[in-house]
Amino acid sequence: MFQEQTILRIPGPTPVPPQVERAMARPMIGHRGGEFSALFAQAAQRLKYVFQTEHDVYILAGSGTGGLEAAVANTVQTGDTVLVCTAGNFGDRFTKICKSYGANVLTVDAPWGEAIDPLQVAIALADHPEIKVVFATHCETSTGVLHDIQGIAAQVNKTDALLVVDAVSSLGAAELPMDAWGLDIVVTGSQKALMLPPGLCFVGVSPKAWNIIEKNEAPRFYFDLRSYRKQLAANTTPYTASVSLVFGLAEVLNLIESEGLPSIFARHLQMQAMTRAAIKALGLPLFTEDSISSPTVTSIGSNGFDVEAVRKFLKKDFNIAVAGGQGHLKGEIFRIGHMGFATPIDMLQVLSALEIALIKSGANVQLGNGVRAAQIAYLQTQEVTTHA
Amino acid sequence: MFQEQTILRIPGPTPVPPQVERAMARPMIGHRGGEFSALFAQAAQRLKYVFQTEHDVYILAGSGTGGLEAAVANTVQTGDTVLVCTAGNFGDRFTKICKSYGANVLTVDAPWGEAIDPLQVAIALADHPEIKVVFATHCETSTGVLHDIQGIAAQVNKTDALLVVDAVSSLGAAELPMDAWGLDIVVTGSQKALMLPPGLCFVGVSPKAWNIIEKNEAPRFYFDLRSYRKQLAANTTPYTASVSLVFGLAEVLNLIESEGLPSIFARHLQMQAMTRAAIKALGLPLFTEDSISSPTVTSIGSNGFDVEAVRKFLKKDFNIAVAGGQGHLKGEIFRIGHMGFATPIDMLQVLSALEIALIKSGANVQLGNGVRAAQIAYLQTQEVTTHA
């Protein structure tokens, strides 16, 4: 029953707040009219708070991958040497995009579920001074690892190389101050912590990046950031804007400004703590170490039960969607998303349902134990938040 | 944060499904046009399934109390003797309405939290053969008692008296077959099990009731059921219809027909079983015995903690609304609603949050114990549902 009401605990798309749904249901307006221009220019301006930057943030109609391609297409040309930090599916995507643009791709990597050490980046940069751009993934959605972008940036900023960060499943949920950390291009998508449906990507660009972009001769048209910069200066977009999504974006920015980034980050850390406490109390293997785990998604392994059965019971009994593993992790792990329009009560909900799904899948867990651990983590993290 | 997203676990208004919200957001149409007439006539026809009746069900713009007044105003006139069965706030409301229409009101009652015994009704009818109408409350929302309407009807149907049933917080959630049980007038509201916002009431009327209504000379206008009957025959309403709510009603009927009454009733019994199992496992006093408890609302007492503090923590921490006590029960009990657009996962959610609120209120409970009992009740009742 109530099939429409899927409870999205996947790492995107995430639930859309009702205010945002209503905003998107506004009657259509023309994307070249004054009303839309004002709304669009304000949204682009307000996105700087979310990116913690003084520089332009461009709004493109496209998925997160479109934003990643824009970063590559504007900074890399055939024969350039680039360094890709990869420890999962989305790190590998940077490699694929860079290769499709003819780059000479070097990589530093770590096994899926582990994190790149900034020292690996330092060594690669020392060994290969010809590296022009470094690509890194903040939250590796496929594993639930949150990379030390601050540490990586400290190494890259000792050189002339640019640092491009995929923050698709982290920006607006985890601390990532673009200017303070010296990040050159930051990319995110609409359907993760930004609480919108898929369809927009956002690209923040530093002056250092513009020096490269302006000289870049690689063929590009739709993703040419020069067009976006020129048109944003005129309060518009080079090509047709996704009008309804921009209606929703304005409402999302209201929500984000009203809650404030520090509270948003604390809420995500609390959801992460609750989820991890519950999984530990149930005796299930967490796929990532605490110190490198993301506040937006938690990957969980199996100690013998069928993870796909767990996912099926969650969907069938409770209409809750959690994600499976990607690539070689399919059937090995499942992933609970906790970002965007989600709060601690949502964690209690998914974890209490998870316990039932685990029992139905034959896992050896005690009902209630995970929820209790999450409840305790909630009370403890609330203490910290209050006293801090 | 996310203040708009109140999780309604009060016994009405209840959450509105998104399909219904969208249906209600349709552009306005005229209530005398052909499009609305067709929609309205179909909705009235389809409501017969929900009432389990072959007779007309009238759709009035008004709250549940408006429907109760319609039942009184059309069957009672000054000096008539009526019998009101009352064991709570809504039973008492029938007494007040009947008195305002000049009736000689006899009552059978039970302490709040207990149920009227059909034998009490039989005795009153034997002692007072002049009783013209018997008024009974199916679910007494103020206490969470579900009355034995079948048993009361069996007694009333031995006489010429009419039986009027307040099914505001039960119809569409608990078994109440109007025709099979011989009920003369059944009243419900839109904002309980019928998953709509407040603003409509629905009145089912038997031929036996019509014999009385046609002869009734009490002054009445807006609630004169004769007008509603005449206009329903012409596929319309005597006065302006609540157009958006009727848009929503059509969608609600889709949902109810799609799930089917037997499944809906089983779902509510399952939510009731989960809630009661959790409260027992936490060692809190249930305000009603299992045998007379409602599948739509559960009243819970205190063993020392401040019930108003519990409600405040639920609202502040999780934006969950549960109801307090009414009348002399204010501060003594709190009430969890579980009807309409609600499923077992919603019970796991509210119960896990309740445990935290209880701890914060200084109650002596063990975190996780209530949730575990609810999880076990879920698994057990699911077995029953599957094997039945």
Automatic annotation (TrEMBL), chains A, B:
InterPro entries: Aminotrans_V_dom, PyrdxlP-dep_Trfase, PyrdxlP-dep_Trfase_major, PyrdxlP-dep_Trfase_small, SP_NH2Trfase/AEP_transaminase. GO terms for biological process: glycine biosynthetic process, by transamination of glyoxylate. Residues 28-326 form the Aminotransferase class V domain. Its cofactor is pyridoxal 5'-phosphate. The modification N6-(pyridoxal phosphate)lysine is found at residue 192. One of its GO terms (molecular function) is L-serine-pyruvate transaminase activity. Keywords: Aminotransferase, Pyridoxal phosphate, Transferase. Substrate binds at residue 335. Transmembrane segments: none annotated. This is Aspartate aminotransferase-like enzyme.
